Amino acid sequence: MSRDIARRDPHSAPAQLDLATALDRLGRSDDALRAYRRYLELDPDEPRAHELVGWLLLQKGHAIDALAEFRAAQRLAPQRGAAYHGAGVALVTLGRREEAMRSLQEATRLSPDDPAIWGETAVAAADLGRVSDALMAWDRALRADPSYFDRRP
What we know:
Layout: H1 2-8, H2 13-25, H3 29-42, H4 47-59, H5 63-76, H6 81-93, H7 97-110, H8 115-127, H9 131-144, H10 148-151
Helix pairs in contact: 1-2, 2-3, 3-4, 4-5, 4-6, 5-6, 6-7, 6-8, 7-8, 8-9
């Protein structure tokens, strides 16, 4: 249905976003990425779409390009913890651990109840040898969601 709407009205940003979301949920990441990019052509100031493109690019192993998308989201909405979270994960992937830690700390400040952000912060802190910071972050992840460890892969 989303595909039909997007084809009938290729200039409809909401239709492109619906299509991209549906394709992403179906595991069709290449098609989803194209649809998200089409959406961003129509509405380049949507931070959430930049974040979603960033996560797809990270999944595909394109951390530098993903970081650029997360940075775009940060510029558009500096109050969104999700943009700093994604940038932190991309920076960890790139081996830029100190910078990643700063980004993840900003994410925890902006989204203090997000267990995934605290979990990533814990891993980054542990990688840097900051054991007490890692333990504190794991504790915060568990306080935010007591089942956090049960859902991790």
